[in-house]
Please model this.
Amino acid sequence: MRILVVEDEVTMAESLRAGLVDEGFAVDVAHDGEEGLWLAGEVDYDAILLDLMLPKINGFVVCRTLREQDNWTPVLMLTAKDGHLDEAEGLDTGADDYLTKPFAFVVLLARLRALLRRRSNDRPTTLSAGDLTLNPATHAVGRGTTMIDLTAREFSILEFLMRQVGNVVSKTEIMAHVWDFDFDGDPNIVEVYVRSLRKKIDVPFDRSSIETIRGAGYRLDANGG
Ligand code: CA
Model:
């Protein structure tokens, strides 16, 4: 497994490299976004650890550019604790997961392995559940031939549900994937967004694809009708 580490702090980059090599990974290091983007285009990496704040081209732009180039290598974005950029924005650029600095190396390793396990195939350009479609790169959402406008957060929640289609996901899982790690508000906020999603993707089409599983969470049913 070959990993690209894009990190400008030399000490951090070196400790990541050494730790990953110890675990048996092949590791390349880039110290700015431009070099990272170039390497990612030259080598078929199994995963990329991408720092957010980078010289020349920042991590968000690197990730978005890769996706625009149809490069779906899993990206684990490394963000600063005091980062003012919201996790949801990162998800919208096509990053697969997030880790807030400082983090324990064992946690990074666990998240990286989870990403590698998920990489069975290159990611489809468009996710679908029945006649509901969602394109993670262009943000286009539609039911049949009707296009649907969603807010950034509604989009992130729907994308998460569509990646887990048929499975029950809890409010806590949705929170963890869609909200900032520092967000410590009421998980019931998820209900508010699910309600507004239903008004857009289900109600006008006389569907009920987002099921509420009492005491457990939600399930997107592809044939929800
Ligand atoms: Ca940095």
Observations:
- Residues 127-220 form a domain with the Arc Repressor Mutant, subunit A fold (CATH 1.10.10.10).
- Residues 5 and 29 are 5 Å apart (CA to CA).
- The chain has a mean pLDDT of 86.
